[in-house]
C-alpha cells in the first residue's frame, strides 16, 4: 500500500512539471505586463523602472524565467507578488482559511443532505418522498450557483436585511459576537455551494443505492433473517459507498473550481478571488502559485480516490 | 402427522406493465420432516417464485400472494408480521440460491457473513460465532477452513462459494433447506460434488430438503418425491420410482425423454428428444390444459376445462384427463 502511494506520487512529478511548463508558457504568451501600472505612473523615473524590470528578470527569455521560477519553487521560495508586494506563500496562507472554511462546511452540508435523502429515496423508489426529492434535486442541480447566490443576496440581504452580503475577515467583535457575525456571513455561501453539490450527490447516491439494492446478495442478506435496517446499512449502503466515496473525492478539485465563482459573488477573500484578481493584474507569480496549488489538489484527490476505493473494496489489490 | 411444510392453493401474481403475470397459480406442495422433495420444470414455470414465497422474499409490490396458505409446522406464514418472519428465516427455513458468484456480499469475508447469520439467531459473541463459522466451513469440506474464514468471496471458486452458501444456510440448523437450482451455474463435475455434499449434509443433520431443478437427472439422484410444475401449476406428483417407471402426464414423459443418456448416446445415435414448443405466457394462460399446445395426445376436451390434480394411483397424482 505504502509502496503504491509512493509510486503514484513519483508518477505525479512529471505531470506537475508538465502542467507548470504549459501554464508558464501560456502566461508568458498572454498580452499584458505586470508593470503596466508602473509604466503609466509619472512619479517613477524610466531608469528606476528599467532597473526594477532587470532585477526581477522580466525581460529574459521564457525558458530562463521558467527555470528560475522552478529552482526557486523547489527551494520553497514561491516568489513575490508584483502587485501586493508580499511573498506569495504568505498571500496564499492568508487567503486559504476562508476558502477551506466555506468549502469544508458546504461539502459537509452536501453530504449530510445527499446520504440520508439519497438512501431513503432509493429504498422507496417512486414513492412521494422519492419523487419530491428527485424533483428538488433536479432543480437544485440545474440552477447555477451564481444565480442562486444573487437570488439569496437579493432576498436575505437586500430585501429582508437579515444577512450581510459582503464577507469580512476583520470583524471587530469578540467572544460570542465574533462567532455570531462569522456564522451570519458564512450562511449564504455555504448554503449556495452545499445545496448545489448536495443536489447532484443526492441523485448519485440514489442511483448507486438502486444499483446495489437489486443485487442477489441483498436477497441473501434478507434470507438470513436480518432486520431491514441492517440489510440496508450493511449490505446496501456499505456497498453503494464504494462508487459514492470515489466520486466525491474525484469531484473535490471541481468543487474548488466552482468555489471561485461563489467567492466572487459573496466577495469572500479566499484563494479563488486571489486568483481572479491576480489574473486581472497580470500578477504571474501569484497565478503560477495558485494554479500550482490547484494542480496539486487534483493529483492529491485522485490519489485519495484510488486509496479509498481500494480500502472500501476488498476485490481491489495494489500489489 | 402434519407435514413440516404444507403449501395449499398458493397463487402468487405479479403486476407488470403488460398486465398480471400469474407466476404461481394454485400450487399444493407438502414436505414431511427429513424428506427430500424435488420440484422440476422448465425455465419460467414458477419454481423460484414458489420457493421465495415460502420465505416471503419476493418483492411486494409488484408481487402479491393472491390466495393460499404456507403452513410451516401447522402455522400459516402468509399473514405473519415481518418481525416473526425474520425469526423463521435461516433459523427454521434456509435457502441456497442458483448464483454462487453473486449471492455473497463482496465486501465482507465469508466468515463474517456466516457469523452474521449465527449471531442474528443464536445471540453468540463475535468470537464464538466466528469459531462456529469456521466449523461450518470445515463441515462443508472447504480445505483449510480455519484460515479461509477470513477470505473474501472473490478468493473462492464458484463451487467453493456454493459450499460457503450451504454452510451459511445450515449454520443455524434449519428444519428445512430450500436449494433453488444450486448446481445449475456450476461445471458438470462440480455439480455432482455439490449434490453429493447436499446428500451428506442431509444424512448428518437430518433436515428436510426442497430441491428445485430443471434437470431430471438430478431428481433421480437425490429426491424421494417429485413435483412436476408447468406454467405456474403442479401437473404431477409421485415418488421418484413411480415417476420414472410410469410417468402419467405427457409433460413429465417429455421431460424424462429429454434426459441425456450418456450410455446410449455413446453406443447408438439416439437423438435427444426435446419437448417441441415453449411455455405459454403467464399473462393470459390458455383456457383448459396449459400443456395442450405442446401435447401429442391433445383432444378437444383438453381445451375446455382445466384438468384437476387427481390421484391416479396411491400416492401418484397427475393433472391430465388421460
Ligand atoms: N418480480 C417479478 N416481476 C414480474 N414477473 C416476475 C417476477 N418474478 C418472476 N416473474 C415471472 O414469474 C414467472 C416464473 O418465474 P420463476 O423465476 O419462478 O421461474 P423458474 O421456474 O424459477 O425458472 P428458472 O428455471 O429460469 O429459474 C416468470 O414468467 C417470470 O417472468
Ligand atoms: S389434459 Fe390433454 S392436453 Fe393436457 S396433458 Fe393431458 S392429454 Fe395433454
Ligand atoms: Mg428459478
From TrEMBL, chain A:
<feature type="transmembrane region" description="Helical">
    <location>
        <begin position="100"/>
        <end position="123"/>
    </location>
</feature>
<feature type="transmembrane region" description="Helical">
    <location>
        <begin position="9"/>
        <end position="30"/>
    </location>
</feature>
<comment type="similarity">
    <text>Belongs to the binding-protein-dependent transport system permease family.</text>
</comment>
<keyword id="KW-0472">Membrane</keyword>
<keyword id="KW-1133">Transmembrane helix</keyword>
<dbReference type="InterPro" id="IPR045621">
    <property type="entry name" value="BPD_transp_1_N"/>
</dbReference>
<dbReference type="InterPro" id="IPR000515">
    <property type="entry name" value="MetI-like"/>
</dbReference>
<dbReference type="InterPro" id="IPR035906">
    <property type="entry name" value="MetI-like_sf"/>
</dbReference>
<feature type="domain" description="ABC transmembrane type-1">
    <location>
        <begin position="96"/>
        <end position="305"/>
    </location>
</feature>
<keyword id="KW-0812">Transmembrane</keyword>
<feature type="transmembrane region" description="Helical">
    <location>
        <begin position="135"/>
        <end position="167"/>
    </location>
</feature>
<dbReference type="Pfam" id="PF19300">
    <property type="entry name" value="BPD_transp_1_N"/>
</dbReference>
<dbReference type="Pfam" id="PF00528">
    <property type="entry name" value="BPD_transp_1"/>
</dbReference>
<keyword id="KW-0813">Transport</keyword>
<dbReference type="GO" id="GO:0005886">
    <property type="term" value="C:plasma membrane"/>
</dbReference>
<feature type="transmembrane region" description="Helical">
    <location>
        <begin position="286"/>
        <end position="312"/>
    </location>
</feature>
<feature type="transmembrane region" description="Helical">
    <location>
        <begin position="240"/>
        <end position="266"/>
    </location>
</feature>
<protein>
    <submittedName>
        <fullName>ABC transporter permease</fullName>
    </submittedName>
</protein>
<keyword id="KW-1003">Cell membrane</keyword>
<dbReference type="GO" id="GO:0055085">
    <property type="term" value="P:transmembrane transport"/>
</dbReference>
Automatic annotation (TrEMBL), chain B:
<dbReference type="Pfam" id="PF00005">
    <property type="entry name" value="ABC_tran"/>
</dbReference>
<protein>
    <submittedName>
        <fullName>ABC transporter ATP-binding protein</fullName>
    </submittedName>
</protein>
<keyword id="KW-0547">Nucleotide-binding</keyword>
<dbReference type="InterPro" id="IPR013563">
    <property type="entry name" value="Oligopep_ABC_C"/>
</dbReference>
<dbReference type="InterPro" id="IPR027417">
    <property type="entry name" value="P-loop_NTPase"/>
</dbReference>
<feature type="domain" description="ABC transporter">
    <location>
        <begin position="7"/>
        <end position="256"/>
    </location>
</feature>
<dbReference type="GO" id="GO:0005886">
    <property type="term" value="C:plasma membrane"/>
</dbReference>
<dbReference type="InterPro" id="IPR017871">
    <property type="entry name" value="ABC_transporter-like_CS"/>
</dbReference>
<dbReference type="Pfam" id="PF08352">
    <property type="entry name" value="oligo_HPY"/>
</dbReference>
<dbReference type="GO" id="GO:0055085">
    <property type="term" value="P:transmembrane transport"/>
</dbReference>
<keyword id="KW-1003">Cell membrane</keyword>
<dbReference type="GO" id="GO:0015833">
    <property type="term" value="P:peptide transport"/>
</dbReference>
<keyword id="KW-0472">Membrane</keyword>
<dbReference type="GO" id="GO:0005524">
    <property type="term" value="F:ATP binding"/>
</dbReference>
<comment type="similarity">
    <text>Belongs to the ABC transporter superfamily.</text>
</comment>
<keyword id="KW-0813">Transport</keyword>
<dbReference type="InterPro" id="IPR003439">
    <property type="entry name" value="ABC_transporter-like_ATP-bd"/>
</dbReference>
<keyword id="KW-0067">ATP-binding</keyword>
<dbReference type="InterPro" id="IPR050388">
    <property type="entry name" value="ABC_Ni/Peptide_Import"/>
</dbReference>
<dbReference type="InterPro" id="IPR003593">
    <property type="entry name" value="AAA+_ATPase"/>
</dbReference>
<dbReference type="GO" id="GO:0016887">
    <property type="term" value="F:ATP hydrolysis activity"/>
</dbReference>
Amino acid at each position: 500500500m505504502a509502496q503504491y502511494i509512493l509510486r503514484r506520487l513519483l508518477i505525479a512529478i512529471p505531470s506537475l512539471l508538465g502542467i507548470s511548463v504549459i501554464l508558464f508558457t501560456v502566461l508568458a504568451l498572454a498580452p499584458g505586463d505586470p508593470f503596466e501600472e508602473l509604466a503609466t505612473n509619472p512619479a517613477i523615473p524610466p531608469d528606476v523602472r528599467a532597473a526594477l524590470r532587470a532585477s526581477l528578470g522580466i525581460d529574459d527569455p521564457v525558458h530562463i524565467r521558467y527555470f528560475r521560477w522552478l529552482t526557486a519553487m523547489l527551494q520553497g521560495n514561491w516568489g513575490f507578488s508584483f502587485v501586493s508586494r508580499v511573498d506569495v506563500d504568505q498571500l496564499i496562507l492568508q487567503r486559504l482559511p476562508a476558502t477551506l472554511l466555506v468549502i469544508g462546511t458546504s461539502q459537509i452540508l452536501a453530504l449530510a443532505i445527499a446520504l440520508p435523502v439519497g438512501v431513503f429515496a432509493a429504498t422507496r423508489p417512486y414513492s412521494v418522498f422519492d419523487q419530491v426529492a428527485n424533483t428538488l434535486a433536479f432543480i437544485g442541480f440545474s440552477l447555477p450557483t451564481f444565480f442562486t447566490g444573487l437570488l439569496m443576496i437579493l432576498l436575505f440581504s437586500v430585501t429582508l436585511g437579515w444577512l450581510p452580503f459582503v464577507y469580512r475577515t476583520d470583524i471587530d467583535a469578540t467572544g460570542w459576537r465574533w462567532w455570531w457575525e462569522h456564522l451570519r456571513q458564512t450562511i449564504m455561501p455555504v448554503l449556495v455551494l452545499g445545496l448545489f453539490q448536495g443536489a447532484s450527490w443526492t441523485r448519485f447516491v440514489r442511483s448507486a443505492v438502486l444499483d446495489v439494492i437489486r443485487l442477489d446478495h441483498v436477497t441473501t442478506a434478507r434470507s438470513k433473517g436480518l432486520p431491514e435496517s441492517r440489510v440496508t446499512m450493511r449490505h446496501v449502503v456499505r456497498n453503494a459507498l464504494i462508487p459514492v466515496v470515489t466520486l466525491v473525492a474525484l469531484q473535490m478539485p471541481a468543487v474548488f473550481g466552482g468555489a471561485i465563482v461563489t467567492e466572487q459573488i459573496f466577495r469572500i477573500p479566499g484563494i479563488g478571488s486571489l486568483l481572479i484578481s491576480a489574473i486581472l493584474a497580470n500578477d504571474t507569480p501569484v497565478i503560477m502559485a495558485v494554479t500550482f496549488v490547484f494542480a496539486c489538489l487534483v493529483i492529491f484527490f485522485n490519489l485519495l480516490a484510488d486509496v479509498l476505493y481500494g480500502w472500501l473494496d476488498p476485490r481491489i489489490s495494489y500489489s | 402427522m402434519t407435514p413440516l411444510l404444507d403449501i395449499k392453493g398458493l397463487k402468487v401474481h405479479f403486476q407488470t406493465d403488460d398486465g398480471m403475470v400469474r407466476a404461481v397459480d394454485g400450487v399444493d406442495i407438502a414436505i414431511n420432516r427429513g424428506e427430500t422433495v424435488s420440484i422440476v420444470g422448465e425455465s419460467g414455470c414458477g419454481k423460484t417464485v414458489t420457493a421465495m414465497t415460502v420465505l416471503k422474499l419476493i418483492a411486494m409490490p409488484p408481487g402479491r400472494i393472491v390466495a393460499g396458505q404456507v403452513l410451516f409446522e401447522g402455522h400459516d406464514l402468509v399473514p405473519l408480521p415481518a418481525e416473526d418472519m425474520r425469526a423463521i428465516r435461516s433459523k427454521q427455513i434456509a435457502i441456497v440460491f442458483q448464483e454462487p458468484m453473486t449471492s455473497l456480499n463482496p465486501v465482507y469475508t465469508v466468515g463474517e457473513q456466516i457469523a452474521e447469520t449465527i449471531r442474528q439467531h443464536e445471540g453468540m459473541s463475535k468470537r464464538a460465532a466466528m469459531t462456529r463459522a469456521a466449523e461450518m466451513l470445515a463441515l462443508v469440506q472447504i480445505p483449510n477452513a480455519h484460515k479461509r474464514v477470513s477470505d473474501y468471496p472473490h478468493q473462492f471458486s464458484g463451487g467453493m462459494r456454493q459450499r460457503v452458501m450451504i454452510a451459511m444456510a445450515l449454520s443455524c440448523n434449519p428444519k428445512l433447506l430450500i436449494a433453488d437450482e444450486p448446481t445449475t451455474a456450476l461445471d458438470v463435475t462440480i455439480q455432482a460434488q455439490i449434490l453429493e455434499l447436499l446428500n451428506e449434509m442431509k444424512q448428518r443433520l437430518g433436515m428436510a430438503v426442497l430441491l428445485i431443478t430443471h434437470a431430471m437427472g438430478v431428481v433421480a439422484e437425490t429426491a424421494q418425491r417429485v413435483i412436476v410444475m408447468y406454467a405456474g401449476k403442479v401437473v404431477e406428483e409421485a415418488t421418484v420410482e413411480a415417476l420414472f417407471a410410469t410417468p402419467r402426464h405427457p409433460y413429465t414423459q417429455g421431460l424424462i425423454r429429454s434426459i441425456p443418456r450418456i450410455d446410449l448416446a455413446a453406443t447408438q445415435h439416439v437423438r435427444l428428444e426435446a419437448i417441441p414448443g415453449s411455455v405459454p405466457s403467464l399473462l393470459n394462460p390458455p383456457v383448459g390444459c396449459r400443456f395442450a399446445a405442446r401435447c401429442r395426445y391433445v383432444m378437444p376436451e383438453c381445451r375446455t376445462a382445466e384438468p384437476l390434480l387427481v390421484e391416479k394411483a396411491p400416492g401418484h397424482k397427475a393433472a391430465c384427463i388421460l
